[in-house]
Amino acid sequence: MSGVKAWEISDSEDSEAETKPDSNRDDSSQTATPRGRGAPPSGAACGHASALRPPAPDPRGTPSPARKRRSKEEAEADRRAAAERKEARERQKETRAQEKEERRREQRARKEAAENVRRLRPENLLRCLQVGVDPGTACCLQVQTFVCACFFSSFPALLQHGGSDILLDTLAAFEWRFTIESQQLPHSITWTRDSPQGTDGSVEEEQVALVLVLNDFVDMVISVKKMLDSGGEETGTGSFLSPVLEYLNRDDKKLVTVLVTHSPADYRTGACGGYLLDETLRSKSGMENLEVEEVLVYLQLCKNISLVFLDGWQEVTNHVCAVTKALSKRPFKLLTERAELPFCVDGAWAGGARVERDGSGLIQVWSRQIQQLNRVSPAVASTVTAAYRSPQLLMQAYQSVESEEDRKGLLAGLLVKSGGKERRVGPEISARVYHCFTAQNPQLVLD
Fold first, then answer.
1. What is the rounded CA–CA span in Å between residue 298 and residue 225?
2. Rg (CA), the chain
């Protein structure tokens, strides 16, 4: 009976399997095997359950359709774009660094320029100047007696000349730097200034003052006269002329000024610019005024030696102080002269017109020229220059007209537009413009 029941159950299962879809036909063969009541579920039931679940992912790692693999061209394009972005960031960073460095350099340049201007101020440059006085020029009355005795033994010529202590007292009162030491040119006063920052030593100025008394100056004039008479030979010259010529031969840029002290009152440079030679100088030199003037002209033009007659050491002191102040002002003046002139600013108030190399601006100059006439407005001048683009064209127009009256009224009919109104130039302005360009009388009053 059990066998019959098993086959009956299998037959019923076969009938049910036939009614199922074809997708489960493969599992129907498994129901044909006899099994007991405690047998596990059939393969058909398991196949039906697995059909309801989603498919498991492929363990081989096959990519999904949404994520496509990029081609080599796309990857290379992405790498190039990334490299370009990186390069652009580097360029931007470098540009910012350059701009920052440029601003830093400009700040340093402005600071150095301001420091240079401050250093070149006359009041600051006076502290850098030093006056060098040759011991044979000054009588050192302020030093000790034994020092003076030593100086007298070496330079007896001018140390015994009283009044030279005025120069030293004045320099000390102004708190200017000065030294008493032997100079390359005896009996001279020189000026030196400290070197610019960052360098050692000092720079010697071109100005040199040579202090001579009247007798020494006369000997110098006689020596120059003999030199000129001998054809310009510098050998065998006097004691004071030889050192000066040798000094100038070593450095031809030096400017030597001879200061003649204790000269007679009537032997000076007068208002007319001539020199008056007194009887003492004439008797000792044996030369006339014209010959002395020829010597002085030779010294000034050929040897760059100028001459100043001073009455005593007070005037010598004034001259030295004036030169010292002028040397302190010169660097600052040179600095300002290299810059643009402050009173030549390019603006409408200057009253001028700029003319370029290509000729642009000439029409403005022509218009300004007509505006110089009284009661000639810019509108009238523009009308005239529009009709006649140059003075030559206006003169040709005047020459083409036969009668004088027609020439005077040539510009009277020109139409002037100003402020939305129109008017004529008029016969009065036309006549004045005509007389301005054609009148032969320089004293003619145009208005």
1. 10
2. 55
pLDDT tens digit string along 373-408? 888 899 999 999 999 999 999 999 999 998 999 999
The greatest distance separating any two alpha carbons of the chain, rounded to the nearest whole angstrom, comes to 186
Local structure of 246: helix, strand or coil: helix
Can you tell me the distance from the alpha carbon of 55 to that of 50, in angstroms, rounded to the nearest whole number? 9
For residues 288 and 399, give the distance between their C-alpha atoms in angstroms, rounded to a whole number: 63
Q: Which two tokens stand for residue 372?
A: 């110089």
Beginning with the edge strand found earlier in the chain, give each strand of the sheet holding 177-180 in spatial order. 177-180, 129-133, 188-194, 202-213, 255-261, 305-309
CA distance 186 to 72: 93
The DSSP 8-state label assigned to residue 62 in this structure reads: P
Q: What is the DSSP pairing of strand 255-261 with strand 177-180?
A: unpaired
Say if residues 423 and 416 touch (Cβ distance below 8 Å).
Answer: yes
- Other beta carbons less than 10 A from residue 166's beta carbon: 19
Q: Please write the tens of the pLDDT for every residue from 271-309.
A: 333 344 455 566 666 777 788 888 888 888 888 898 888
Length of the chain: 447
CA distance 96 to 104: 12
Count Cβ atoms below 10 Å from residue 186 Cβ, excluding itself: 19
Phi, psi (degrees; rounded to nearest 5) at 50 = -70, -25
The answer to whether 260 touches 212, Cβ cutoff 8 Å, is yes
155: three-class secondary structure by DSSP = coil
What is the pairing mode between strands 188-194 and 202-213? Answer: antiparallel
pLDDT at 62: 54
What confidence score (pLDDT) does residue 234 get?
Answer: 59
- Cα atoms in the 13 Å half-sphere on the side-chain side of 319: 22
| Per-residue pLDDT at 85 exceeds 60 | yes
Q: How far apart are CA 419 and CA 440, in angstroms?
A: 37
Phi, psi at residue 203, to the nearest 5°? -115, 130
User: 89 to each of 84, 85, 93, 98, how far by Cα in Å?
Assistant: 9, 6, 6, 14
pLDDT band at 126 (very low <50, low <70, confident <90, very high): confident
Strand, helix or coil at 382?
A: helix
Residue 251 near residue 322, CB atoms below 8 Å: no
Q: Residue 378 CB: number of other CB atoms within 10 A?
A: 12
Please state the φ and ψ torsions of residue 130, each to the nearest 5 degrees. Answer: -140, 130
Q: What is the DSSP-derived secondary structure letter of residue 22?
A: G
